[in-house]
Amino acid sequence: MRVAVIENMRNTGLGALAAALDEAGAEIEWFRVWQDGILPLDISGHDALVVLGGEQSALDDEAHPYLPELVRLTRRFGDAGKAVLGICLGSQILARAYGADNHLGIAREFGWHGIGVTAEGRADPLLSALGGEFTIFEWHADTFSLPQGAVRLASSPVAENQAFRIGRAVYGTQFHFEANAAVVEQWKAEFPDTIARIAPGWLENHAELAARHGGAADAAGLAIARAWVSLIEREEVEMLSQASA
């Protein structure tokens, strides 16, 4: 199982997703576009694509000139029936790839928050194990309209489109399900000034908040990660299925 991971910002971290991919024996190839702008040449070398978060917006083509090609790449993976996962900025890029509108600076959330699962989400492989609501980590200011043909899987008062699916296995999550306790600790250590500015008091209350919400969020995040990884189809399996048809 070969998975391409697009890192839009230094030291983003895979967290719960790393654990699920490791359990599945996946081979991960990192593309650190924040450093060199290099993306996969085509979709044939990987069975799945993950697009992680970042501080830029999904429309920031001038400062991040690789973005238009990344938008096209996510669409090519999705149109080929391969598993695609966009997290936070990645979900906003996915929405752009499928013709939706990005809305900048109108949906600010930080920290652990409750997310409501839609009726469609309760029946979807990604979220079906989580019931009607779960707690997960958020860090975003932007949001997006629901792409045409997408199914809304989760929602919140701040961001209506917290998770969606297109086709078989193209998923976007506005929330950071990968952000387990270790990832949150890393962000806390690396971005204290930013966190203090956008969420006054959070750093001082982190220990209490983590004790209250961290365990449930970690469990939900790992369940989501395992569910998405289970949807990755290896190319050789697809080829055998076609040969026998």
UniProtKB/TrEMBL annotation:
CDD domains: GATase1_1 (cd01741). Residues 17-180 form the Glutamine amidotransferase domain. Keywords: Glutamine amidotransferase. The keyword Cell wall biogenesis/degradation does not apply. InterPro entries: ChyE-like (IPR044992), Class_I_gatase-like (IPR029062), GATASE (IPR017926). PANTHER family: GLUTAMINE AMIDOTRANSFERASE YLR126C-RELATED (PTHR42695). This is Type 1 glutamine amidotransferase. The lineage of its organism: Bacteria, Pseudomonadati, Pseudomonadota, Alphaproteobacteria, Hyphomicrobiales.
